[in-house]
Amino acid sequence: MAVTWDVLQREWQEKKFRPLYVFGGDEPFFMDQAMDTLATSTLEEHERDFNLTVLYGRETDAATIMSEAKRFPMMAERTVVLVKEAQQIKDIEALASYVAQVQPSTVLALALKGKKLDKRKALYKALQKHDGVYLEFPKFYDNQVPAWVESQAQSMGLKMSGKAAALLGEYIGADLSRIFHELEKIQAFVGEGGEVSAKIIEERTGMSREFNTFELIKALAAKDIAQSYRIAKSMGENPKNNPVVVTLSLLFGNFSKALVYGALPDKNPRSAAAALKISEFALRDIARIAQNYPPPKLLRIVGYIRDADRQAKGMGAPHINDSDILNELLFKILY
Question: How far apart are CA 260 and CA 82, in angstroms?
Fold first, then answer.
């Protein structure tokens, strides 16, 4: 049956469990969270040794999974079987026969990372017909990240400003697992109920307000030549924290989006951000780039960045160091 992630979390908090869950889609964070929550909420710690089984798709098959699922619990209310990397089960469709006759005392969960069930086939149809759950976690886009960061921070007892949430999202992107890890570090630093400002984000995640790629993008967007070279010099002195391939990737993303932004018929911030799949916070720099660089120049800049990326990866000019690659690119962008 069709349920949402929020509904499942509420059910699990109330200790209500379905006999079978299948998770699919392109967002691994929620899938991992679902499997971890099932492992801890279905059984008490002392019950897990005999009643929790974790299998991996590449090492198992449908017959083994069904055999484990049909076991009776030992001194516990239920048996729990978690199958990770289930997209690698070669005969996964054979599990349809189990769906029709589940073991009532078992909770079986499968996680298909980067894959979805084929809705034309038997397993999906069986899940819809019987008391099983199939839930897909779609890929998270950059424009969804700030709101999620604020919500996650709140659930962790943190008071985070919208600017801080947007900054963390821009710095890391839509890597929810990494964002969650950074929030855990920040939580340990400020404590429960602590306030999280943009300054704390910069300090605790290793960002420098003045010398990072995001400040370089702002300087380039403003066509601030002196500041652009000042930031590039600082970044070049600390290549470990500022790998040029990462810088080039972010520059490419911003300038290519500026090119698309310039052609949008509706430049209302909310509409434009949705069209580009970014946050309104990130749109500010992109809009300014589009304002200060005409489309023909933007098109050339995108080409320059591609050339610099090839150089940084040792193609064409293997003896140019990263600092020289970035400085040469800045000259082409700014002049």
Answer: 44
